[in-house]
Amino acid sequence: xxxxxxxxxxxxxxxxxxxxxxxxxxxxxxxxxxxxxxxxxxxxxxxxxxxxxxxxxxxxxxxxxxxxxxxxxxxxxxxxxxxxxxxxxxxxxxxxxxxxxxxxxxxxxxxxxxxxxxxxxxxxxxxxxxxxxxxxxxxxxxxxxxxxxxxxxxxxxxxxxxxxxxxxxxxxxxxxxxxxxxxxx
Length: 185
Ligand SMILES: [Cu+2]
Hints:
globular, binds copper (II) ion, 5-stranded mixed β-sheet, alpha+beta, 3-stranded antiparallel β-sheet, Coagulation Factor XIII, Chain A, domain 1, about 15% helix, single chain, about 180 residues
């Protein structure tokens, strides 16, 4: 019992310190492959606070590490996290935003080989997570996107595509990303 109580209170503290991240569907997590590409310090930063901004993740200039794609998290560490969606499927997202920072946000499909957007954003916010509001709009933390039907054969192989939640806190100058690995089946 003591162990589980300690675990819960540790999670609570981490949440209070947090800024924001996607809690559902499962998003790419750091692991051994990320450590080899981006360095152990980058992995440690995410493990210490999975909701911190990209700017807090040190890549130490590792040439093949791109923190600005999926926080540097690698598909090789996440092969068990690949979501299977169908064209036209409505996918529910849940996000926690304990420390909001006003700015634009979107969820887009990213071709991971080129770090480019596929098609149009699935959802787009001109202003998101506005800390000046007494209460955030409900759709900041719970929203849905629809899997496009016109991907033209893209995103059928695991690792090729992610749904990337992107949020830029304009005044805070903090960038947030989480990537959901998926295939269209
Ligand atoms: Cu923040």
